[in-house]
Design a protein that fits this description.
The chain is mainly alpha-helical and 143 residues long. It is built from 3 helices and 2 strands, in the order H-H-H-E-E. It is flat and about 80 Å long.
């Protein structure tokens, strides 16, 4: 890297705008941690008093933890996707049993499908399993 590259990077408006966003999301993340721990205490009180989890608090804590994850991904330069309020609030995918599965972010729609997604109407191929090894037979008279 030479001096011209450094000058270009330092004078780039995009870099300084991203730093401004990073400072803002760092402050938002600081507040989100306090909200997260408040939700943890509320859910703990629900479990202690009623003996079961509150579904609404559980749903919110799942989306809040995903939002915190999105903020840290943006701060670490792992993602260029700006979290809420510059995009939708994250949503959680639901499993059949009603428990939350791995969270899914509300990302902008993409027209191009990835290679890992199956074509519409076609089932996803099952991964091949290696054949089982036969069990060794016990020697005669050892029972």
């Amino acid at each position: 890297m030479d001096n011209n590259d450094i000058k270009h990077n330092l004078s780039s408006g995009e870099q300084w705008l991203r730093i401004l966003y990073m400072v803002m999301f760092a402050l938002v993340l600081y507040v989100a941690y306090f909200v997260f721990w408040f939700v943890v205490v509320i859910q703990t009180l629900f479990v202690l008093i009623s003996g079961s989890k509150n579904a609404e608090v559980l749903k919110f804590s799942g989306t809040l933890s995903l939002y915190i994850f999105q903020c840290t991904q943006f701060l670490a330069y792992k993602s260029e996707h700006k979290p809420f309020p510059f995009s939708d609030w994250p949503v959680e995918a639901e499993t059949v049993a009603g428990e939350s599965a791995s969270p899914v972010a509300a990302e902008p729609e993409s027209d191009a499908k990835s290679d890992s997604e199956p074509a519409e109407g076609k089932p996803k191929p099952k991964p091949k399993r290696s054949p089982r090894k036969p069990k060794p037979e016990a020697p005669e008279g050892s029972e």
